[in-house]
Amino acid sequence: MTINDINNQNLLKAAGFVGGEWVQADDGGTLTVDNPATGGIIARVPAMGEAEARRAIMAAESAWPSWRAKTVKERAAVLMAWHQLLLENEEDLARLMTLEQGKPLVESRGEVRYGASFAQWFAEEARRDGGDIVPAPRTNTQIRVTREAAGVAAMITPWNFPIAMLTRKAAPALAAGCTAVIKPASQTPLCAIAVTALAQQAGVPAGVINLVLGSGTVIGSELCANPAVRVLSFTGSTEVGRILAAQCAPTIKKLALELGGNAPFIVFDDADVPRAVQQAMLSKFRNAGQTCVCANRIYVQNGVYDEFMALFKERIMALKVGNGMDDGVTIGPLIDGAAANKAAQHVDDCVQKGAKVLCGGNALGGNFYAPTLLSDVCDDVLPCCEETFAPVAPVFRFTDENEVIKRANDTIYGLSAYLCTRDLGRAMRVSEALEAGIIGVNEGIISSEEAPFGGIKQSGMGREGGTYGMEEYTEIKYTLLGF
Ligand code: SIN
């Protein structure tokens, strides 16, 4: 399968998109897009720079007044058309995603539907965001509180969910009346191009969506420094998030940062163990372990440790590693060689400090790493302080509730956390005690368009999705009316 097998060739532009035009880099430079499963080159796209990013911002700034002036109903109609087109092109988009990102085709199809859902959800949400009338302190006055579009929003999107993270940012921005400049990850520009082409087809006016392809450092610096950009939304590592936040400080932008995680997944003695294993599989191995909300540290209480490990091992050994295009494959390649090396480094560190490898534990060549189960892991290991972002499951033993809460919270991250228990009191108590923006109780997949996604501590700020997702792209205005 190559990009020539994509049915809708309009999705393949090999160009950026600025002011309604498909454009090349000023200096004609390109970057290659590689297939992480084969190492082969799939396509070349323009390597744009600072000047092109500046033009994209100017295009977004000029398009803003007329887009903002449209009725919410008009903007919602465009988003609904985009949603429909994303669904109609599901198979092509999924193939493009598997080609450039590597995840199994069945997961790519799921991501296209997940990504499309944000366009529909925010089209609906925008129409209900009418503001508030607040009781005033004096007679003959009224306090009117409205939410207004913040302006030009810049979005830096990641390679692990190349469609859903783009729509999760762009849909609320457009619904709110903002215009967008999008910089997708260099590894996965083809999905971003295709989704932008569908936005154009859906009737998004020229300049309302702009796409700038190329180096994150160069384009990111312009997006952060340019005073016309009012919002910066970024999904990626905490390390890069810190740099972007510092670069945005001089122009005091609104920031929405969805950064790294290091999710604890806690299984108590009173859990339904088969269900806990099932949910741990979903949480840990989705996208080959390359999600910010992946279980990174699995804590299992002594009473169910052996039962959990036996079942977990059986399920992990049944995973099929391979090219995501092939039937039955459940674990694709990691995004690149550095990611496979990091997996090996984390496993080696655990093993050197006493952990046992129950299955996997080895590189499989290219960007592939074997799904790995590690038992009796101690707390002084790399997965306790960094995201592993690979199909590696380190399992720790614990004795009691207070102890595990302390260990789970002992991290700078606070994106998601999971617990499995049949005791409702414990579920409530532990959910409250865990320091994370998202908690899954007996559930390993917590993302949906209806729910607010985002973290606390150094996992970031702001929320995407849910009713809260529009707040990142709006400013509150209070008007005191005297009469
Ligand atoms: C992420 O890993 O950044 C997003 C995952 C999700 O939306 O579930």
From TrEMBL:
UniProt keyword Plastid present: no
Active-site residues annotated for this sequence: 258
InterPro entries tied to this protein: Ald_DH/histidinol_DH (IPR016161), Ald_DH_C (IPR016163), Ald_DH_CS_CYS (IPR016160), Ald_DH_CS_GLU (IPR029510), Ald_DH_N (IPR016162), Aldehyde_DH_dom (IPR015590), Aldehyde_DH_Superfamily (IPR050740)
One Pfam family recorded for the sequence: Aldedh
Alphabetized UniProt keyword annotations: Oxidoreductase
The organism's taxonomic lineage, starting at the top: Bacteria, Pseudomonadati, Pseudomonadota, Gammaproteobacteria, Candidatus Tethybacterales
Occurrences of domain Aldehyde dehydrogenase (ranges): 22-478
Similarity comment: Belongs to the aldehyde dehydrogenase family.
Entry protein name: NAD-dependent succinate-semialdehyde dehydrogenase
